[in-house]
Amino acid sequence: MSERQSPGIRISIDRGGTFTDCIGMVPVPVSKEYPTGRREIVIKLLSVDPQNYPDAPREGIRRILEIATGKPHPRDKPVDTSLIESIRMGTTVATNALLERKGEKCALLITKGFKDLLLIGNQARPKIFDLSIHKPDVLYQRVVEIDERVILIGDESNPPAELTNDDANIIRGISGEYVKILQKPDTNKIKNDLQSLYADGFRSIAICLMHSYTFPDHEHLLGSIASTIGFTHISLSSAIMPMIKIVPRGTSSTADAYLTPCIRKYVDGFVSGFDENLEKNARIEFMQSDGGLVPVNKFSGFKAILSGPAGGVVGFASTSYSESERNPVIGFDMGGTSTDVSRYDGLFEHVFETTTAGITIQAPQLDINTVAAGGGSQLFFRNGLFAVGPESAGAHPGPTCYRKDGPLTITDANLILGRLNIDYFPKIFGPSEDQPLDVEATRQQFQLLAEEINAFVGNDKKMTLDEIAYGFTQVANEAMCRPIRALTEAKGYDTSKHILACFGGAGGQHACAIAQNLGIKKILIHRYSSILSAYGLALADVVHEVQEPCSKTFSDDTLPYLMERINALCDTCTKELNSQGFNESHIQHHIYLNLRYQGTDFGMMTLKPKDSWDFIKTFTEQYKQEFGFHFPDRKILVDDIRIRGIGKGFEIEKHDIFDEIKNTSPIPVSEDQCDNTVSVYFENGRMETPLYCLEKLKIGNKIPGPAMIIDSTSTILVAPKCNALIMTSHVFITVEGDIKSNVTTESDPIQLSIFGHRFMSIAEQMGNSLQKTAISTNIKERLDFSCALFGADGGLVANAPHIPVHLGSLSHAVKYQLEYYNGKLEEGDVVMTNHPQAGGSHLPDITIITPVFHEGEIIFFVASRGHHADIGGISPGSMPPHSKELFEEGAAIKSFKLVSKGNFDIDGLTNVLLHEPARYPKCAGSRCLRDNIADIKAQVAANHKGISLVKVLIEEYGLDVVQAYMMHIRRNAELSVRNLLKKVYHRLEQNILKAVDYMDDGTPIELQITINEKDGSAIFDFTGTGPEVFANTNAPPSVTFSAIIYCLRCLVDEDIPLNQGCLTPINIRIPPNSLLNPSDQAAVVGGNVLTSQRLVDVILKAFQACAASQGDCNNLTFGKDEKIVDGKKIDGWGYYETIAGGSGAGETWDGQSGVHVHMTNTRITDPEIIERRLDHAVVLREFSLRKGSGGKGLHRGGDGVIRDLEFREPLQVSLLTERRVFHPYGLRGGKDGAKGLNLWIRKGNVKGRDRVLNLGSKNSFKVGTGDRVVICTPGGGGWGTPTDKPNDDMDIDEAITRFL
């Protein structure tokens, strides 16, 4: 801690990947030159330059000291700290170590049965159309399973019966939940395991045990033993983030173990270059991802991921937000490889679970959305579309103009357009690093691209280089607008009511265009915009956070307990900040409760109101703002108590920029202030544009657009119809007048790309709305839903990449309703359907369809489909394995007008979901009607969001243009598929492709594809497929359409628009009354989740694309019916999950293990959530990879998984699976993957022996207390003839050796 008595130099540093920005604030006497009594020295230098200095931040400090004192500070001597008051730093050291996987060697200690849990994660694949599935590597090098186990058995509102037994193994956890210790750790074995790790060179470990968020004792025991052995870094998951969900808590603790030692090494190296008085003279603080500073000794890796960007957020928030105006601000930070956007409205917005470089971090982080579009984003022309990124040129080789033979990028486009001026750009390029930007090389590369584009377009009007370069900037701008809309429109805010605060090296060149696209009228660009992250560090507060779990219902009765815990945690924060030198007058506490409605999983961190304890009012207002409704009849639960302690240290005096603007009389800029005139290209052509040097402009100068304003580190482009006002600390730009679109109905490749973004953005925002507003696990957590936009003809326009099995079938559902109502739909109507003959997939998937009207005519449709946990039928979960008729699977609705002219028909909805299904023998109505209604309302709200966005698009461009581009986009998708089929013909040198595979009951799925190589069309003929079965694996035709469109998109392997055009070149022939085209009342629940997967295997086999994946969704449902006890109704419940397996290998890749494949990509519920939520009725004993189940080959197939569940009470269980008879095939000599295996391990009888029963692929049964169900999912097939590897233990199927 600093012992300084007088003010010293305050230094703030942002160490980025390429550049390090430093700002030193030197105290000086107040004068006209320095009215604040502060001289600011700015240094910008390369982050890595070993020939000149060993450490960039220390070099920056050295240079600041030389300038401040006017005396030399030699590099070969320790830096003198006598004048330094503080050093604040944001760094990308942790981020880079994570991205490059260069962290500390570490091991993971985890509860037995979960050694592969973090590898499996949530089982979803990152890119649903990527056949060569790539999942990020885990961060640890070794796993040690700890034979310990605790389970949840109740809470204070529902205390366990075992409490009366005075059992010492039953303990009340921190959250108020009761846990039961089933197995205590064996300390001797743990010591041996840890000593073995230590002997092998491990010094850093992460410890993550089941339910340690509420019962951390076992983690503390392991940590204590590890400490005595000598481990230098021990990360306890219960200490770093005590929140429920073992997977993100585990990945966070491993990230901490992996990254914090790197941080420590970096800090030690940094500090070593200073004199011995550094700690005595100066405070050293680092920026965390949450926007708060911490002392250097408390800086940890997992909280450092956004250390650099966080400084920028603090910077724009502190300098651009006006307390008097209270207009929310959007931060727009455009760098070389990506653009970060964020929002500030007086409080920092935090999220608590984010994924960076494939690693999920559970920690408070600023809500920063990143898009892969920056100055270095590469430019492509693909299938008639302009594409920008996500590939980046990076620092090396960089853009074409950097003289290193790099690719064309956005920087090159701006150079061609005249928006970068080489005379004012640093001459640091070429072999000697003394050359300017290479305009000629950029022009030559654009000329080659222009030839390709014009040859493709083929019309009389050739596109010029200017038009092409401008087109790429437009596409990039639209890509950067999408995350801004997600931060605003998707959360219920009006984007146009925001201020745009631009910073970063490239932000000023795009600021006006971004604002015009979004309807924003005010732009602020700080004079330190290119180093705002460093400046933000100078403005930041020191923060110390504490958090603990809770399991209370918020009420008047529980408020005293909550207040007691809040006060205790506030005291903890205060003591810590006191120890850092802050007295009580400089400490503030922000008090949060993590609240959620009962029956939902979406919590909201709710800030305590200033002068009351009325969290409920704040929570409901916040909920309604984001989602448009709330649940007044539901209890509100408290999941966590969080205190954010803030230490207010030295503050830079902040002035309100809008107060200055109000009090400034604009001074027209004079001609003699113009430094140059340059030619710049805008939408309507080139314009002579005055260029001004910022340092030569006066406060109050008003500069009309077009204009360029340049300083030493950045370029600001003031577009036509914009005006810039020079302020003390900012350039303030106003966007005046409406920016009218000049787009016509004629197809244009630039606008084609832009409309592709806009249409997809509508579907994505609908999906965001649905996920947030739904209450069921299936939609909110498993993400088993899809949203889409359709033309007036019912043809698909855009489907967000949610669940592939919905891709083609949703269009069938819309077309059915269009024909059914035959012009009788009215504005305000909403239709509900789920019947397979009406375009449905299976009955739990309920589709909500809303027409979009314009001047009395239907112009579009929006639709959302979500999987509901139960809709009646013969078994809980509505996924019966032995259904023979459709009515056994629940409510079957061809068409129901849910909303008529704005009136919601709740009685009719109750009838079709609750009463109608119960009319059939042995069938019940929905077992969770209240949740059904809530989710259906969420789907209606998502559709409403889509309608509003469609209308915004029409208002912006006009109906004729929007509808014209709907058709252009379809034609573009059609072209992509035709080109694909032509390539397939040339690759395989044949135009007839055949494949057949068999369902477990022996039913064949047979396909012949006949390709017309001249026009790129094809016939998909399923003649030879077996007849409809008296079971439930029948699949309606819409499922076949979905499978085909999915496979075509995978094979194209480019980011093409996904719409009806993909199927235009395809003639699909399905024989009637077959497995793929069954009769009206055929059972279909398995067709959607099983047959669809086998369809994909057959199609990909015909194309020889890859070996078979697991060919299954491994559907597991369990639950219980409602019952009447003492005249009181006790609700039943149903739980449903699909389980990962192995993916098939391909010509150049190994299959992925433990991942969902092809037609689904739903997530799996976290182990701790599943054990807490379901009345504590289930214990997950194991979730691991099934070693050896992937097929051998030159490239191996991926392994399946083992999922072992133990039941603590009698429940009805259903299994609906495939590939238990026929193996997933290998290709080109690759071996088959292992078949799946379903086992029921029945608790021992009188002789004490368990019975192990093979359940086959489909079964329904009632488990007793202590029974287990073990699901061993199939592996993927191998590709290519395997090389001989003797004694390869990967060839031994773990499931067979362990269970049989």
TrEMBL record:
One of its GO terms (cellular component) is cytosol. Residues 10-229 form the Hydantoinase/oxoprolinase N-terminal domain. Residues 566-732 form the Acetophenone carboxylase-like C-terminal domain. Signal peptide: none annotated. Residues 249-545 form the Hydantoinase A/oxoprolinase domain. Residues 748-1282 form the Hydantoinase B/oxoprolinase domain. GO terms for biological process: glutathione metabolic process. GO terms for molecular function: 5-oxoprolinase (ATP-hydrolyzing) activity. Pfam families: Hydant_A_C, Hydant_A_N, Hydantoinase_A, Hydantoinase_B. Belongs to the oxoprolinase family. PANTHER family: 5-OXOPROLINASE (PTHR11365:SF2), 5-OXOPROLINASE RELATED (PTHR11365). This is Hydantoinase B/oxoprolinase-domain-containing protein. The lineage of its organism: Eukaryota, Fungi, Fungi incertae sedis, Mucoromycota, Glomeromycotina.
